[in-house]
Each structure stands twice: as C-alpha cells, then as structure tokens.
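Predict fold of Transcriptional regulator, ArsR family; 194 aa.
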Amino acid sequence: MQIKSFSARTLDANALKSFAHPLRLRIYELLDEHGPSTATGLAALLGQNTGATSYHLRELAKHGMIEVVAGMGRGKEKYWRVVPGGFSYGEARPADPEVAGALDYLLDDLVRTRGAELSRWRAESETAPEEWVQASVYGRRSLRLTPEETASMRDQVFEVLERYRALSDTRENDSTGHVIVHFDVLPTGVGGGG
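Predicted 3D structure, encoded as tokens:
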C-alpha cells in the first residue's frame, strides 16, 4: 500500500507520530484550505488559546510540514503556511507498533476528511458558480487489472497530478479555487477477507 503524492517527501517515524494529533491535523487542514495564518488567527478559528496553537505550529514546522512565510506579519507576528510539494506517509506498514498506530490514526483521518469533503462539495455544488460545477466530477471505475498494471496506472495518474501540484505551488491566493482531488486505488477481495 502506498500513501503518497508522486514526488512528495516521505514522513519519517517521528513526523508520523507528531502529525497524528487531532489539533495538528486540523491546523494543517486550515492552512491548506485558507492559506497563511497566524497562531492568533488559528486560535480564534479553533476555539483554542494562542499558546496551544503556537506550540502545535512549532511541532508541525519541526517536522517540515509547515513554514513561516517570509515578509508577512509585523514585529514578532508570524504567518505560517503549508510547505509546498506535499508529503507521503510511506510505502510499507511500520514495524514499530507506536508508529503503526500513528499511521492508522492518520489513515482513519484521511478517510474521514475525504467523506467530509465530498459531502461539503455535494451541498455547495447546489449554489456554486456553474463553471466550477462543470469542472468538477465524481468518479469511480471498477477495473480488472494485474498488480503490475495497477501500479503503472497509479504512477501515471500521479505524474499528471504532480504537474498540476507544481503549478499550484507557484500560486498564492489569487483568482484560482481551492481544488481537492481524491485518488485511491483499492484492490478488493485479494486479502482473503473480502
């Protein structure tokens, strides 16, 4: 099983354990969706105190998930953003039970987040501008493939996504929309439990 974006850096065991925290995940989601923010701004959105958000921002930064935006803010005020390029959870199940538990938590959150994002768009699409409705799609395909063909298809799709991720990373909050792409390859019935 691979949980990655095509050329993203892979989180090490310490980063996985650190990221598997509900408030850190939510902070990361907010920075990803809304762009740069301060600890104070995030604290207001999350109903937390600034000390808590500052601590969790530093933890995310320590593991290269976010960074301070140069040139934004006054005095000691820091604006934080998601580090461009994305990240991967890795390719194999960790042998360390603590790291494996952190990965399980992150994967469960990924599934939850995807469901919430799909439901949100389903509701928003009723009133969204027509050009965005026309550009969006819900997609599902059921294919009969070998493991080699499956891996090849996955890699080709990630190559396309990587081109658009690189384009996206060059942009700030301009006239673009925040577009989420879900892509999963799920062989079913191959593990003996299906």
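Helices lie at 13-19, 22-34, 39-46, 50-62, 97-124, 130-135, 147-169.
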